[in-house]
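Friendly challenge for the regulars: who can give me the structure tokens for this chain first? No prize, just bragging rights.
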Amino acid sequence: MRDPVSAEGPPRGANCTPSGGSAAAQAASVGGPCPVAAAVIERADGCVLLAQRPHGKAYAGYWEFPGGKLEPGETPRAALARELHEELGIDVTRASPWLVQEFVYPHAHVELHFFRVHAWTGDFVGHDGQAFAWQDPCNVCVAPLLPANTRVMRALALPPVYAITCAEDVGEDAFLARAERALAGGLLLLQIREKTWDGPRRESFAARVVPLAARFGAHVLWNGNAADARRLSCGGVHWTSQALATATSRPQDLIVSASCHTHDDVRRACALDVDCVVLGPVRATPTHPDAAPLGWDGFAKAAEGTRVPIYALGGLAVEDLDAAIAHGAHGIAMRRHAWPIT
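First reply, four minutes later:
Bragging rights claimed.
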């Protein structure tokens, strides 16, 4: 996963709903927003398909995710299927909602409904004569990208699994042995939690976790505040729902995630332009025995229209990843099930 603050592209929030100043004036001048369905077509190796805009269109030569405008009365999902058939000659057999982004171009104000397309039939044919390229989201080689897509690439660089430490349950040494196995197996994002420990013990634990994760190129988030995250050499900070409720801005030098339990929480996290959120509990968990589980339908409702990637949380295991993605999640967050015993 690339550091979100160093990725190329417009400043944070440039793809979000304009809230004032020249962006709002520009949006008013072009009207809108115009709803558009956009496809993140994913290959088994993680690469995604980009298309080059043909001559004669605005931003000709720029690379983008395939898709197009909704017709009157058409849903984003129906537009996705129609556009991919007309533009690429493929028929979508499995797709899931993902992110919604807004962007104001000089010629248009668009609202992009992104779907992750997992399966399709047919062979790719550029009916408009456009070029195509499969690209690794962490190492895009084609340029220039359409401005509205740079933030989407940052989101795609986030891994599907977000792990939360549980050393207080199993013991510190035993946990670190399990953590090393998980990191060796490809884990790339983890949060140091350990809420029952006092400050010095948590910090001593972080001093062991951070270099371990660094050996494998993984990012460590500190459940707490940004100042402590920096002091402990963590790459990011995780906000509790209480911290999210009182935050007025986000640190720009850290990855930021936040805990959410409702659609309003998600909206607030989007307004603060965090990098990702964890939303739950989907199922009942020992750590939150009094919280009413959302279930998958409740999760999908709370996640609907999100502008930031969401990890489903609460009583989940790796086997739940496909269900989570089908209901609008970017991936899953796990505590106990993230750390292999053997």
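The first helix runs from residue 21 to 30. The two ends are 26 Å apart (CA to CA). Your move, everyone else.
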